[in-house]
Design brief:
89% of the residues lie in helices and 0% in strands. By secondary structure, it is mainly α. The C terminus is likely disordered.
Length: 123
């Protein structure tokens, strides 16, 4: 009787460990992808605005150049916030999926039957 319970618990622990490793891996990947997106968006914004800013500075339009710098900085902040929000959403989804799969694992009938004393053969 105890052996079946121990085996069931070990199977549960192994499955939970696999789920946990998968969750952690997915979260790490989401963070890396968000960082890459953030870097690309910021780079694109800087490339676009830096050219405009240099042209304005060369043509002695310092006020317009400063306005472009502020617009660039504003767009960078918006892009950073957007990427962060998407990252949080993806991580939240991953955690919700993990919680659901963990609940499903706990409600697995084979696990419940092997740990349920009424279903064990008492010798």
């Amino acid at each position: 009787m105890q052996q079946r319970v121990v085996e069931a618990l070990k199977g549960y622990d192994d499955s939970l460990e696999i789920l946990t490793l998968e969750r952690d891996s997915r979260i790490e990947k989401a963070i890396e992808e968000a960082a890459a997106q953030k870097f690309k968006k910021i780079n694109d914004i800087r490339e676009t605005f830096d050219i405009q800013i240099k042209r304005l500075q060369v043509s002695k339009l310092k006020d317009k150049a400063e306005a472009k710098k502020q617009e660039r900085d504003s767009l960078i902040k918006i892009a950073e916030a957007d990427v962060e929000a998407k990252k949080r959403k993806v991580i939240s989804h991953i955690k919700e999926d993990f919680a659901k799969r963990k609940r499903d694992l706990l409600s697995d009938t084979s696990f419940q039957q092997s740990t349920n004393p009424s279903s064990l053969d008492i010798i």
